Amino acid sequence: MILVWMISILLIGGVACWLVAQRNQLACKWTALVAVIAAFLLPIIWYIQHTPAVGAGNNWLIDYQVKWIPAYGIGFHLAMDGLGFIMILLTSLLGVLAVLCSWNEIREKTGFFFFNLLWTLAGIGGVFVAMDLFLFYFFWEVMLVPMYFLIAIWGDFNRRYAAYKFFIFTQTGGLLMLLSILALYFIHGQQHSGNYTFDYFALLNTTLGNGATARWIMLGFLIAFVIKLPMVPLHSWLPDAHSEAPTAGSLILAGLLLKTGAYGIIRFVLPLFPDASASIAWWAMLLGVVGIVYGALLAYAQTDLKRLIAYTSVSHMGFVLLGVFAFRQMALQGVVMQLLTHGVSTGALFVLAGMLKERLHTRDINQMGGLWTAMPRMGALAMVFVMASLGLPMLGNFVAEFLILLGAFEVSPVLAVIASAGLVLSALYSLRIMQKVFYGQIQTITAPPADVSPREWIIMASLTIAIVFLGLYPQPVFDIVSGVVQQVARL
Amino acid sequence: MVITRFHPVHALLYLAVSFFSSSMVFLSLGAPFVAALEIIVYAGAIIVLFIFVVMMLNLGRETAQQEKEWLKPKVWVIPAALVLLLLIEMIILLFSEDKQVMQIAVVEPRKLALSLYGEYIIAVELTGFLLMAGIVGAAHIGKHKKTELHRFLQNGHTDKEKTTYTRKTETVTTEQTAIHE
Amino acid sequence: MNQLLAYIPAFPLLGFILLSLFGRKLTNPVIAIIGAGTVCLAAITTIVLGVSFLQTPPQGGAWQQLLWSWFRVGTLSVDLSLRIDALTLIFIFIITFVGALIHIYSTFFMRHDADYARFFASMNLFVCSMLLLVMADNLVLLYLGWEGVGLCSYLLIGFWYDVPSNCRAANKAFLITRIGDTALLIGLFLLFKELGSLNMGTILQQAPKHFVSGGASITLITILLMVGGMGKSAQLPLQTWLPDAMAGPSPVSALIHAATMVTAGVYLIARMNGLFQLSPVTMAIVAIVGAITLFVAGCSALAQTDIKRILAYSTISQIGYMFLALGVGAWSAAIFHFFTHAFFKALLFLAAGVIIEALHHEHNIFMMGGLRKRMPEVFLTFLAGAAALSALPLVSAGFYSKDAILWYSWSAAGGNPVLWLMALAGAFITALYSTRLMLVVFWGDMRSPVHEQPDKGMIIPLIVLAFFSVTAGFIEWPHNLFHLTLFSDQVQQVLPQTVMKENEPSEWLFQGIAALVTLSGVYLGYVLYYGKSGVRWQQSPGLSATRDFLFSGWKFDQLYNYVFVKPYLFLTRINKGDVIDKLYNAIAQGSMRLNSWFSVSQNGSLRMYIVGVLAGILFIITLQLLL
Amino acid sequence: MNSAQMVLMVAAVLFALGLVGVLTRKNVIFMLISVEIMLNAAGMAFVAAGAKWQQPDGQIMFLFILAMAAAEVSVGLALVLQIYHQHKTMDVDRLRELRD
Q1: ipTM attached to this prediction
Q2: What sections of the protein cross the membrane (chain D) (predicted)?
Q3: Which structural domain, as residue segments, surrounds residue C598?
Q4: Which of A26, C121, C131, C279 is most enclosed, with most CB atoms within 10 A?
Q5: Mean pLDDT over all residues of chain C?
C-alpha cells in the first residue's frame, strides 16, 4: 500500500502544484517540496519499521495487487524487493534535490514545471515497482512524456532538437519493448492454455529456451533498456538531452532515467530470458567496454560543461553493462552500487554545472577558469564529485567500479583490462573539469560570482554525505540487494 | 457542354439539362422516386443555389472573358487525355463482365422508404447530422470574420457580406426541406 | 596497544575534517595548531606504539585492529582493518615524525598564504592516506591510501592553482601515477582470481603453495604490481611527473615527493616480497629498472639549474637505488635507504625552501651563491643533507645505506657486476651534483640579495633533520666494520634475509671503491665549480647539446608528447562531434530531404492533387487489366 | 449489351466529363459544378446497379449521395463567397497558400 501512496502523492502533488501556481508561485514550490519530502519520508519510515527484513535481503518485501483490466490479464501489481527499495530511495532523494535545485531557476510556467517534474518522478518510481508488464510500460511512458516537456519548454537554446531526439530515441525503444511484451504475452498465453496475463511472476514461468523467438523478444526488451542506459551506438540522444535540459531535468535524467534502463535489464531481461541473454553476454560486455572508452574519449573533447558530464555518464554506464552481463554476484552488486553512486555523483556534477550556469550564464568551460578564488566552497564540492567520478576510493564509485571489474575479470580478463584503462581516461576528463573551471586565472570581468548559498549547501551536502557514506560503508546496500543479486547470478 | 461554357449561367443551364436527362434515365431504370428527387433537388435546389452565388458575386461578361483566356488547349489537353484513358479503361472493365440480360423492375417509393427507415436508419440519421453540419458550417463560414481574418487579407471586406450571410442560410434551409420531403 | 592503531590515521583525518569544514572561519594560529598538532599527536602515538612494540613484540610480529567491515560480497571480503608490523612501523615512524617536522616548518613557511587552511587540510589528508596505505592489511585498503595520496599530491602540486603551469604539473602527476595505479588494480584482479583473497596475510601465506615459482601468472602479477610501484615512485619510464611536481610548495616536495609518497612503490614491493620472490624475472626487471633509473635521473640532475628540480631528479635516482636493492633481494637495505633518504631529502627540500623564500622565489642556482655567510644555519644543515646524499664515508647516514646497496648489488644472489657498475656510476654522479649544488649555492659571489632571514621555527626542523641525516645511519653498520644491526633485526621479522652469493668477495674492497668513487666525485665537482660559475658548459657545442638533452630529462617528455599526448588529443579533437551522432543526424537529415522532395508535390495546387489521384486510379486499373 | 450496361456507360462518360471539368477549369464555381456532375454520375451508377439486382439499396445510396452533394454544395459555395470576398478572385491557382 505504501507504494501506491508514494506514487499517488507525487501524482496528486503534481496536479496540486499546477492548480496552486495559478494563484501563487511560491506556494506551488512549497507544495512540490512538501510532496517530494513526503514521498521521501514514506520509504524511510517504512524502512525503519522493517529494518531486519530489509537488511536480510529477503525477496519481495511488499506485494500489492488489485485487478485492473482482468479481461486482458492486466493487473495493478506493485511489488518491491531490495533492488526496488534501493532505487525508490534514490528516486525520492533525488526528487527532493531536484525540487530544491529548481527553486530559483524556473521563473516561468512554474506550476507546469513542477507538475512535469513530479509526474516524471512518479513514473520513475512506478517503473521501479511495477510487476505487471503492462503497468510497467504504462509507467515507462508516464516518465517519458513529462520529461520531454521539461526539456522542450525549460531547456536551453537548442532545446527543441534535444527534446525531439530524446523522445524519438526512447520512444523507439519503448515501442520495441511494447512489441516484445505483447509477444511474450501471447506466447505465455498459448503455452498455458489460454491463461493470458501480463503479470511478471506468471511470465517468469514461460519457457522460451534459446531459440530465435526468445532472442528476438529479448532484443526488443534489451534495446529499449540499452537506449535508456545508454549503450554506445545508441547513446547520442543523451548528450543533447542532458546539456539542454534544465538543472533538475539533467539531475533526473542522469540520476534516475538512466537507471531505469539498468534496472530493466536486471529485472526483466536476465530473469525472463536467461539463456538468450547469456548467449549475447560477450557482445553486450564488449559494447559496455566500448562505451567506457568511447564515452571517455568524447568527454575529454567537449568544451560544454554539461555535455562533458553527459559523456562521462556514457562512460560510467558502460561499466553497468559490463557488470550486468558478467553474470557474477560481485559484478551485479557492483552494478547496483554503480547505479546509486553514479546517480549521486553525476547528479551532483549536473547540479554544479547548473549553479555555474546560473552565475556565469555560460556552459563553455573555456570561458570559465580560476573560479576557486571566487568560490572556494563550490570548488571543494566539485573536487569531491570529480574525484568520485574518476573512481577515487573512499567515495562510492570506487567500490562499484572495483566490484564490477573484479567480477568481469573472472569472465573476460581482456575486456576487464580494457575497461580498467578507461579509468585512466576517466582521470583525464575529470581533471580537465577541475583544471578548466576552477584552476587557473579568474576570467570573469564582472564581479566575481557568489559562493554556494544555503539552499545549495543543503543539496550538495546531502549528496556529499551520501557518496562518502556509500564509499566507506556500502555494506547495507549490498545486504539489501543480496537476495535479488543472488537470484539473478544463479541464472 | 457544361464544362466548356465560359459564362457560368450558360453552364448552369446546360447542367440543368443534364440533370433532367439523367432523371429520365432513372425513370427508365425503374426508379421514379429517385427521378423525381433528381429534378427537385439537383435541378431545383442546387442549381438555384449556384445561380444565387453567381448573381451575388456578379459574375458576368468579364468572367466569361477570363474563362476564355484560361481555357486554352494546352491547359485541357493533358487532363482530357488522361481522363479519356480512364474512360476507356472503365468501359473495358464494364464490358469484360458477364453479359446477363437485366430485368428492369420498378422499385416503388414504398419499398424504398421501408428499407430506408428500416435497415439504413442509422445512415439516415448520420446523413441528417451531415446536413446539420453542412448548415452550421455554411453559416459559420459565411459569417463576418473581421477578427479572425488573416492580416494580409483584411482589405477584402465589404459591406456586401451581411446580406450574403442572411441569404445563405435561407437557401440552405429550403434545400433541407426539399430533402426531407 | 591494539586500540591505539586507529588513532594514528584518525588524528590527521580529524584535522582534515575540521580544517576543510571550518577552515575559512579560523584564524591562522588555530589552523596551525590543528594542522600541525594533529600530525604531532599522530607522531607521539606512533612513538608510544613503537616503544612498546620494541619492548614487547606482539604475537606473530604484528598488531591488528579491525575497524569495520568495508564490504563483503560473495567470496570477497574487504575490511577496514589496520595492521602494524616492523616494516609498517618504520614507515609510519617516518611519515608521522618527518611529517610532523615538515608541518611545523610549514606553519611558518606558509604563513603569508591566503589559503592557509586549505594547505593544512590537504597535508593532513595526505598524512592520513599515507598512513592508511602503509597500515592497510589488505590490498584494497592499500589501494585506497594509494589513490588518496595521489589525490593529495595532485591538490598540493596544484596548490597555487592560478598559475597554469602548476595545474598542468598537477594533472601530469595524477595521470602518470594513475597509469601505474591502474596496472596495480589489474594486478589485484589477477591476484583475486588466482587466490580468491586480497588480504595480504592470506596472499603471502598461500602464494608459495599456489604459484609455481617463475610461472607466467605470478610473473604477470608481480610485473603489474611493479608497474604500480613504478608510477608512484617515479621510476623509468613513468618518472616524468616528479620534476614537474616541484611546482608545489617546498614542504610538499619535502613530505610527498621526497620522504613518503614516492617511496610507496618501495613499500608495496617490500610488502609483497613473498610474491616477488616467486618470480625471478620480475626481480631482475625491478633491479634493472632501478639501476637504469638511478643513472638516467642522476645524469639529468647534473644539468638542472632549478634547485628543486635537481633535488627532484636526485630523489628519482635515490629511489632507483631502493628499487635496485629490492630487485637484488636486499630487502632490508632498501628499507634502510628509504629510512635515511627520508631524513636527508626532506632536509634538503626544506632548506631549499628556506633559500628560495629568502631570495624572493629565486629557483635558479646560478642566481644564488655566497649564501654560506649570510645563512649559516641553512648552510650547515644543507651541508649535512648534501653529505648524506652523496654518501660521504662514515660521517653521513647516506653512506651506510647506500654502501649496503652497492655491496649487495654485486654480492647478493640477484646481484650482477653490471648493476654494481651502474650503481657505482650513480654514486659518482650523485657526489658530483651534490658538490655542484653546494658550491654554486653557498660559495662564490652573492648574486641575489637575501631578502629575509628565516624564522626560528623553520630552522629547528632543519636542525632536527640534519641531526638524523648524520646519525640515522649509525643504527646499522656494515658487517665488517662494527656489528650493529638494530635496523635489519627488526625488518627481518617481516622481510626475508638477503641471500648472498657463495664465495663472496671481500666487503672491504667494495667499501673502499665506493668511498673512493664518492670522494672523486666530490673532487671533480670541486675542480669544476669551485670559484667559477658553470659557464664552461656552453663553450663546447657537443657539451651544450648533451646538457640540453640531460636538462630536458632525456627528452622523455617530448617523446611522450609525440607518442601519447598528441595522438590522443588528435583523436579526441577529430571525434569531438561524435561520429555516431553524425550517423543519426544523417538519418534525420535523410528523412528531412525526403520530406522536402515530397513536399514539392504538396504545393496546394488542387489540380495537381486530382491528377495524382487520377494517375493512381489509372495505375491500379491498368494493373488489374493487365494482370 | 443491355440497358444497365448502357446506363453504366453513360455514368462513366458523365464521370469522365466531370473530371475533365474539375481538371481543366480554374474557376472555383466551375469546378464545383463539375463535381456535381461527377456526383451525379456516381449516383447514376448506384441506381443502375440497384436496378440490376432489383434492390432498393442503390436508390438509397443515391439518396445519401444527394444529401451529401447538397451539403457539399452549400458549404462549398459559402467558401466560394468568402474566398471571393477575401481574394477578389476565383482562380484556384492563385489561391495556393501552401505554395512551397
Answers
A1: 0.71
A2: 6-23, 28-48, 60-84
A3: 577-626
A4: C131
A5: 81
